[in-house]
Design goal:
globular
Length: 184
């Protein structure tokens, strides 16, 4: 199998993998659901939004520990910033105080040289040929380094979007949604 065939196969398998897990992700809230937000979200919206305020929400709603919440959200926010233009990335940082602190808490992962099996191996192989897949592979590895399953990426993304579903969080929410379009 030549490199183009390997890449095509890997890309197809990756797309199928994301599609197969799509039912595990909750749909994004629409504007009508803003009225039915939890009291926690309403209380946070009244005082403004902060990336650091999402940590207790993640730990309570997803059952992860504080280190996993900080590192996972930092990884996710770092990925989102990388997908945006430099102007949009700066706007997201301004609209979501604490973002840079969390991005700094993301685990550092090195590219894996050993041969992997399964979908992770296909994603790593495909990542060698595509920058977008490389970013997704890095995010996947960061979550694994935290002891989190890759399926948790979508749950983190949905929780962050629900938190930002407020008047004060609209700008940050729109930018984050754009940066996380591969997962939402």
């Amino acid at each position: 199998m030549n490199k183009i065939q390997q890449f095509s196969c890997a890309l197809l398998c990756t797309a199928l993998s994301f599609s197969a897990h799509a039912e595990q992700f909750e749909p994004l809230p629409d504007s009508a659901s803003a009225q039915t937000a939890t009291s926690t979200t309403l209380d946070q919206a009244a005082t403004g939004v902060s990336a650091l305020d999402m940590i207790p929400l993640l730990t309570s709603s997803l059952g992860v520990n504080k280190n996993q919440a900080e590192g996972g959200l930092g990884s996710l926010l770092g990925y989102a910033k990388d997908q945006l233009s430099s102007t949009e990335s700066s706007q997201l940082s301004s609209a979501l105080p604490g973002l840079e602190t969390l991005v700094g808490m993301a685990p550092t992962v090195e590219p894996k040289n050993e041969q992997q099996s399964g979908i992770g191996g296909l994603l790593s192989t495909a990542a060698q040929y595509n920058d977008s897949l490389k970013s997704i592979d890095q995010l996947n590895q960061q979550f694994q380094a935290l002891g989190l399953e890759p399926e948790m990426i979508g749950q983190f993304a949905n929780t962050a979007m629900q938190y930002l579903n407020s008047t004060q969080g609209q700008q940050a929410g729109a930018l984050l949604k754009q940066g996380l379009s591969a997962f939402l």
